[in-house]
């Protein structure tokens, strides 16, 4: 009757140690299949051809250190590792654990005989790690779907205004094209007028294309991808995206952008989603205010560690006891809405190692601030 054996790759150049370990696995109640490699090169070839379920690797090998087999990060690790060494050394232990090894064994007659039990414990731990990672992957996938739905919902709320915005350049194109048709049969003296009309058509086509491009980028269901970008640039992109919606609500947008802001590495679509959510919340908070008082201010600043964006409104404000509840799933002060916009926004900012907070303004209204770490220093955001 065939039995399933647990495949173990033993990377050990000392024949005596390899024999003792292999003997211990042979005598163990569990079925093991031990494959031996004596060098890092042999081990890598084995890993590439047929990855085992466990790797036990010696620290010192003829062609390098055993830690060289460990992946660059634990998230990219496909199998668990146990690192062995002939001499106890705290520095080696730290290097092994930081490198992703699940256990560190100092060679002795007892520890080599106990290797099968060590391997069983490591495999149980690895199963938990894999299950946690699967759960995290499922959570991230659900969050991605929810964030995508939130972006589409935001676009749905602005659909009428956006349709109007696209219709403007299309109407202008039709008018200029009509002018061209009128001028063409006439003499060459009107060449400049015809050329001017064609240039205006080109400008309006580009304008309509920019509107569609912004919409497509914003609602696209894409894999998260980071790039170096300036927050000021993202804010100006969002300002173009929500311009008509602000106008339809008689809301004035004031931008106070710090020209000295450095570029930072972020997911452009996600950070734009946060800005859109916060600007929309700001304008919706002022529906009961008189038009002259409907002002949304967006301010960018920076310090030695972070770049920050403040988005303030002049609405009735948020009671202090509700300032944290705002970020809880499904909590909303609106008559309509899912109550997920701020939850998603905070998750996005925290995934970028930043913070999103809410505070009351001195007179009236609220300010939402998100801060993101500068990270690597780059050219100024101009």
From TrEMBL:
Keywords: ATP-binding, Kinase, Nucleotide-binding, Phosphoprotein, Transferase, Two-component regulatory system. One of its GO terms (molecular function) is ATP binding. Pfam families: HATPase_c (PF02518), HisKA (PF00512), Response_reg (PF00072). The modification 4-aspartylphosphate is found at residue 58. Residues 161-376 form the Histidine kinase domain. Residues 7-122 form the Response regulatory domain. Its EC number is 2.7.13.3. It catalyses: ATP + protein L-histidine = ADP + protein N-phospho-L-histidine. PANTHER family: PEROXIDE STRESS-ACTIVATED HISTIDINE KINASE MAK3 (PTHR43065:SF10), SENSOR HISTIDINE KINASE (PTHR43065). This is histidine kinase. It comes from Symmachiella dynata. The lineage of its organism: Bacteria, Pseudomonadati, Planctomycetota, Planctomycetia, Planctomycetales. The gene is fixL_6.
């Amino acid at each position: 009757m065939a039995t399933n054996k647990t495949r173990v790759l033993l990377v050990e150049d000392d024949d005596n140690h390899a024999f003792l370990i292999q003997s211990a696995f042979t005598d163990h109640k569990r079925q093991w299949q031990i494959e031996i490699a004596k060098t890092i090169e042999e081990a890598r070839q084995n890993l590439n051809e047929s990855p085992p379920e466990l790797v036990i690797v010696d620290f010192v090998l003829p062609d390098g250190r055993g830690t060289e087999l460990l992946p660059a990060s634990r998230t990219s690790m496909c199998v668990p590792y146990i690192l062995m060494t002939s001499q106890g050394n705290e520095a080696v232990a730290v290097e092994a654990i930081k490198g992703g090894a699940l256990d560190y064994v100092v060679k002795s007659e007892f520890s080599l005989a106990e290797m099968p039990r060590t391997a069983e414990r490591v495999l149980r731990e690895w199963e938990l790690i894999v299950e946690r990672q699967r759960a995290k992957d499922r959570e991230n996938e659900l969050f991605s779907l929810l964030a995508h739905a939130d972006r589409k919902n935001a676009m749905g709320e602005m659909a009428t205004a956006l349709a109007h915005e696209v219709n403007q350049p299309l109407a202008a194109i039709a008018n200029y094209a009509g002018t061209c048709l009128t001028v063409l049969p006439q003499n060459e003296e009107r060449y400049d007028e015809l050329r001017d009309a064609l240039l205006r058509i080109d400008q309006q086509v580009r304008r309509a294309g920019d509107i569609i491009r912004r919409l497509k980028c914003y609602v696209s269901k894409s894999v998260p991808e980071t790039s170096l970008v300036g927050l000021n640039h993202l804010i100006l992109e969002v300002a173009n995206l929500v311009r008509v919606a602000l106008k339809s609500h008689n809301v004035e947008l004031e931008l106070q952008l710090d020209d000295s802001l450095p570029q930072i590495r972020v997911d452009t679509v996600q950070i734009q989603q946060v800005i859109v959510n916060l600007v929309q919340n700001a304008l919706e908070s002022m529906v009961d205010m008189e038009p002259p008082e409907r002002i949304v201010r967006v301010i960018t600043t920076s310090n030695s560690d972070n770049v920050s964006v403040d988005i303030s409104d002049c609405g009735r404000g948020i009671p202090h006891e509700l300032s944290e509840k705002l970020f809880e799933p499904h909590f909303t002060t609106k008559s309509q809405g899912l109550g997920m916009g701020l939850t998603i926004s905070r998750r996005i900012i925290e995934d970028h190692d930043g913070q999103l907070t809410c505070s009351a303004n001195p007179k009236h209204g609220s300010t939402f601030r998100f801060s993101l770490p500068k990270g690597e220093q780059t050219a100024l955001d101009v």
